[in-house]
Amino acid sequence: MSASLIASLSRLFGHQKRSDCTLVFYCNALTAAKDLKEASAQEQQQDSAAAKAPNDAEQPAAGPEGEPAADQDLKGTSQETASDSSDGPDGQQPGAAVDAASDIAGAPTSLSNKRGGSEATNTPAKRRKTVQTQARSQPEALPSDSTAFGDPLPAHTLVLSGGSERFRAQLDRWVEEQGNGAKPVLRVPLDNPDDLPHALSAVKFMYTGKLDESDAATLLRERRQAAYLQVEGCTEACDEALLALITAAQPSQQQQAGGPLAGVSQLYCCRDLLSSADMAPATLRKLLDVCRQQLVKHAGAAPDSGQQQQQQRAGAAPAVVPSATGGPGLMGELLAWAFGDAPFLMNDLEVRKQMLELSAAAMEALLDCDSFATDDESTVLLMLLTWLEANPSCTAESRQRLLKLIRLTQLSDTYLFRLLPLTTRSIISSQELRFLHEYAFAPEEKRARMRRDAGSAGYDVSSAWYCDVPRPAPTDGEVSGSGDSRSYEWSVGAADLWAALQLTESKRETARVYGKFTRSGPCVVVDGLEWYPSVQFIKGEDAAGIYLYCKMPSVLQLNLTPEAPVRASPGPYRLEVYKWDRGGQREVAWDDTCTDDFCRIGSGCGTPDALPFKRTLPSAAAAASISAGDAQRQQQLLACLAPYLKDGKLWGCLTLENAGEQG
């Protein structure tokens, strides 16, 4: 709809005498019964006198078997659903008001209280009486098991049909069933009366093309209703408003209490709404990316206790969460939410780049935060060492303070006993490391003696190094995705495959080429170690091997003279390679599922004959003379791998199962 048309129609908004249709919002019987039951229970708890003599008129109506209607509705599907499935293609009886619930997925769930109101003005008792009164006053316009709320809204068919695909479908069906003479009455099911003000805001947007000034929670709730009502342009407008709220250069008076991170704090406070806002993954990713950008700019230091109390009173920041190590948790909570858990942070190139730009104070807040999750403390140590390498200007004092926040006793055995003693980095002295090894596995009686003796040796057993509490495991979240399993797409370019094939035809017995993950780069970090997918060719063999290789991170700066080979495992995983049929459909050409296989660091786990092929290469002498820039010959050499290639690459996927478990 054009801006000029919206402007002209906006003048009509609210004039009942010019309206030519009506909107009626209602909730189904299941929701109404639950609301009545909860309201009755609350009243009985609040007023013991009233509980002794309950008003029968205030109780839910009894069902056919003598049970309360609420209990009956909670046992099964509402009558409206059954009616929609039996009364014609649209679930409507002839002559009934049009309802598009059969065409569109169920109404959204309850989200919030009414905007601009308070609990005091919308108590359960008042809402219950209002619901009952409205149900009695409009029985002819609604299904028998539905309850209307709010006044009927005068509207205009031109605006509704032009601004919403949902309303357009309802109006078209009305004309088909009722003809052009009757005034359309469009019924819209909602789950809860609290959704009504946000649904009305979405309808108002169709008239004005504008959103009311509001906070992040209100914008997310309005966005959900706009998506449900299919209001064109409203979800996009909500997204733009959220971005503007987060990046506001001149915060409003309400935001000033929270400073430049007020918008980020608001979004954090209503983070549970993000997963229910029907937001596309790309949109959510952009929103969180902007939050991280703001934190990189402004998370220089956590506010003091006075600032925290002021922010809490203003409702602009989350509550302070005390850390197990004693530091303030406010800034850390924001960082841990926006940056996700440690494996996600290390395995996303863009997020890792933003982490490297954090200040030392921000890194300290993140590491000190108890809600910062990880697969193993080894990944947290690797993250910190990566940051220190990228920030050489960090002072020695800050460096030591950051290292003191690593929970060394929670490191994997591979790190704690094999790699940490070999690093040339100044993390912990060899004497204290031996003390820590003994302390980590000592019974409590012995630990008590060791704590008494630690002071004379200069060891601080109250620091995070000796913390008995592991960090939480990754869980499902809007930032990092699933905590149970995570998949990483990888590929190998045709030029790299060609080069490896050539080597096995001319110079080498074996040639290996490593893949590259789409979002993670050359490797995936698991339990503080790097894992690389690889393709291996053997001279004279008509098959390619697929392996998952483990390497030591170079940032550890290890003295590579271990007495025995160091072994490691990424945990349960599934490694796949794809192929494509003639129709372009993807199939799994090979997969390997491992439960808990260990391999030596510097080698890999896999299968030498994973991808069979028929060699069509020229002789060794001819292959050696082929120029790397000869594209035609390259295609000929790769013809043997053609079933496995798409867009000039071999594609696969690594799925880490139980990604949230500690290593």
TrEMBL record:
<feature type="region of interest" description="Disordered">
    <location>
        <begin position="37"/>
        <end position="157"/>
    </location>
</feature>
<dbReference type="InterPro" id="IPR000210">
    <property type="entry name" value="BTB/POZ_dom"/>
</dbReference>
<feature type="compositionally biased region" description="Low complexity">
    <location>
        <begin position="301"/>
        <end position="319"/>
    </location>
</feature>
<feature type="compositionally biased region" description="Polar residues">
    <location>
        <begin position="109"/>
        <end position="124"/>
    </location>
</feature>
<keyword id="KW-0677">Repeat</keyword>
<feature type="compositionally biased region" description="Low complexity">
    <location>
        <begin position="95"/>
        <end position="107"/>
    </location>
</feature>
<feature type="compositionally biased region" description="Polar residues">
    <location>
        <begin position="75"/>
        <end position="86"/>
    </location>
</feature>
<feature type="domain" description="BTB">
    <location>
        <begin position="150"/>
        <end position="215"/>
    </location>
</feature>
<keyword id="KW-0880">Kelch repeat</keyword>
<dbReference type="InterPro" id="IPR011333">
    <property type="entry name" value="SKP1/BTB/POZ_sf"/>
</dbReference>
<dbReference type="Pfam" id="PF07707">
    <property type="entry name" value="BACK"/>
</dbReference>
<protein>
    <recommendedName>
        <fullName>BTB domain-containing protein</fullName>
    </recommendedName>
</protein>
<feature type="region of interest" description="Disordered">
    <location>
        <begin position="301"/>
        <end position="321"/>
    </location>
</feature>
<comment type="pathway">
    <text>Protein modification; protein ubiquitination.</text>
</comment>
<feature type="compositionally biased region" description="Low complexity">
    <location>
        <begin position="41"/>
        <end position="71"/>
    </location>
</feature>
<dbReference type="InterPro" id="IPR011705">
    <property type="entry name" value="BACK"/>
</dbReference>
